UniProtKB/TrEMBL annotation:
Pfam families: HTH_20. It comes from the Bacteria. InterPro entries: ArsR-like_HTH (IPR011991), HTH_ArsR_DNA-bd_dom (IPR001845), Metal_resp_trans_reg (IPR051011), WH-like_DNA-bd_sf (IPR036388), WH_DNA-bd_sf (IPR036390). This is Helix-turn-helix domain-containing protein. One of its GO terms (molecular function) is DNA-binding transcription factor activity. It comes from Thermostaphylospora chromogena.
Length: 326
């Protein structure tokens, strides 16, 4: 479907000086945009294994997220809190703290029927939000964490190019180099868009967020009062595919243990590790033991749960750092 409207982002001189480029990928924007892509039958998944990973998600979590995120169209602003740029945990905390009034306003702004439990928010607000936060965490763990190495590499490469442009030629040159359909018509950034929309920055500046899973048109928040952001396709999104995840470590550790090491970048229990990789808990435990004996991870027992974390050596190996230096 061709966009029928136009997005116009109006800059002042102050906005140009306050334009920022995000420092890394945002797990919440990547969650929402990848879910749109996952649900769109007309668009092939980035890799066949990524598409099949959906089968490892619980039905309740997938349906809860799908109730808010259509294949095409708006999703509520509270799903992409600005704290997401600080990481998954900070974003989840912000999501859980969303006031009921803000949530109702965001849902009303969608201008479409919202199914339960979101249509019956009230005294059960805290219960629903805990379930939503758990669903976001599960989606990230199953669908994104195993491939975050690639997502992060692609997004950071895009950000590096844009920062270089700002340093060499200034903010306007960087805005002019944003990917199509974005066009810099000073002092306005213009793009084809599903609707007609004017966003006046009014001296607040804007945060530019390249995204691995954003495709074609850029995305902004619905509420113009919120801190302005613009999400757009990372220019180098085809430089590496999700199928490349872990290939650099595979010859050294073996495919499964490389995947274990990568998945443990944020810490996981044995059960979470097994679920993410689609292996049995006993197999996950065995692989973790081998990596632990090699000094690449530590394991701590909390009650009946064993939580694994990478050691500095494990992180150095994962990120390609030698002797603790970049």
């Amino acid at each position: 479907m061709r966009p029928r409207g136009r997005l116009r982002i109006h800059f002042t001189g102050a906005d140009l000086t306050r334009t920022q480029i995000a420092s890394g990928p945002d797990p919440f924007w990547e969650t929402v945009l990848s879910l749109c892509r996952l649900r769109d039958q007309a668009v092939p998944p980035p890799s066949s294994s990524w598409g099949r990973a959906r089968e490892r998600m619980s039905r309740s979590a997938y349906e809860l997220l799908s109730a808010l995120v259509p294949v095409r169209g708006n999703f509520p602003d509270f799903l992409t809190p600005p704290e997401g740029l600080l990481g998954l945990e900070a974003g989840l905390e912000a999501l859980l703290s969303t006031p009921l009034q803000r949530m109702r306003a965001d849902l009303a702004a969608l201008r479409r029927r919202i199914p339960a439990p979101f249509s019956t928010m009230g005294t059960r607000n805290a219960v629903v939000m805990k379930a939503l936060a758990a669903a976001v965490r599960e989606y990230y763990t199953v669908m994104l964490a195993p491939h975050w190495e690639v997502v992060e590499e692609v997004v950071r490469a895009d950000q590096a190019v844009r920062r270089h442009l700002v340093h060499r030629k200034g903010v306007e040159a960087m805005l002019a180099a944003l990917p199509s359909p974005l066009r810099w018509e000073s002092p306005t950034l213009v793009s084809d868009y599903p609707i007609d929309k004017d966003l006046y920055l009014d001296g607040r500046g804007i945060v530019l967020i390249p995204s691995y899973f954003c495709r074609n048109a850029p995305v902004t928040l619905i509420d113009p009062v919120l801190p302005p952001v613009l999400v757009f396709p990372a220019a180098h999104s085809r430089s590496r595919s999700l199928a490349d995840s872990g290939r650099r470590l595979a010859p050294l550790l073996g495919t499964t243990r490389a995947a274990v090491l990568r998945t443990l970048a944020d810490g996981r229990s044995t059960t979470e590790l097994a679920r993410t990789l689609g292996i049995s808990p006993s197999s996950a435990s065995e692989h973790a033991a081998v990596l632990r004996n090699a000094g690449l991870l530590t394991s701590v027992r909390w009650g009946n749960t064993v939580v694994h974390e990478l050691t500095p050596l494990g992180r150095a190996l994962l990120h390609g750092i030698q002797d603790g230096r970049p």
